Amino acid sequence: METTIENQLETNIEGRFVLKVVWLDKNVALAVDYVISKGISPLTPYYFWPRTDAWQELKDELDTKTWITETEKIELLNQATEVINFWQENAGKTTMFQAQEKFPAVVFSGTN
């Protein structure tokens, strides 16, 4: 059975927002989507680590969304930190599917 973002949303997502990650060999990209009913709407663009300070860019973007609670921002940024740290420690050694297993609440896509 093919894993789609919609399938991941149905099984993994419990909040109003979802962290999306593109898992690549030389970069990891982070974005946040807004979960609306059973659909999603992009909330932020993708920010690429280590090409830029993706965590700070994501934080700055979330700070412009005054309707997002501080608790939600902290949860998303904590998830982003964990994913970035995991990618840094395991780049080239871990597949996207292994990362998805480690972070079931995050939606992954990528080339490996």
Structure in words:
With 112 residues, this protein is of the alpha+beta class. The protein has one domain: Enolase-like, domain 1 (2-Layer Sandwich), CATH 3.30.390. The protein is 41% helix and 24% strand. The protein contains four helices and five strands; from the N terminus they run H-E-E-E-E-H-H-H-E. The protein has helices spanning 5-12, 54-63, 70-90, 96-102, and strands at 17-23, 28-36, 39-42, 47-49, 107-110. Strands 1, 2, 3, 4 and 5 form a five-stranded mixed β-sheet that branches. Strand 1 and strand 2 form a beta hairpin. Helix 2 runs antiparallel to helix 3 (70-90). The longest helix has 21 residues, at 70-90. The protein is globular, with a radius of gyration of 13 Å. The two termini are 18 Å apart. The model is unreliable at 1-13 (pLDDT under 50).
Can you give keywords for this protein?
five-stranded mixed sheet; 112 residues; alpha+beta; Enolase-like, domain 1; Ribosomal_cS23
What fold name stands as the CATH topology?
Enolase-like, domain 1
Mean pLDDT: 87
Q: CATH class, please?
A: Alpha Beta
Question: Could you describe the largest sheet, including whether it forms a barrel?
Answer: 5 strands, mixed
Radius of gyration: 13 Å
Question: Which spans of ≥5 residues are poorly predicted at pLDDT below 50?
Answer: 1-13
Class derived from helix and strand content: alpha+beta
CATH architecture: 2-Layer Sandwich
Q: What percent of residues adopt helix (DSSP H or I)? A: 40-55%
Q: Between the first and last Cα atoms, what is the distance in angstroms? A: 18 Å
The total of beta strands comes to 5
Which overall shape is indicated by the principal axes computed on the Cα atoms? globular
Oligomer: single chain
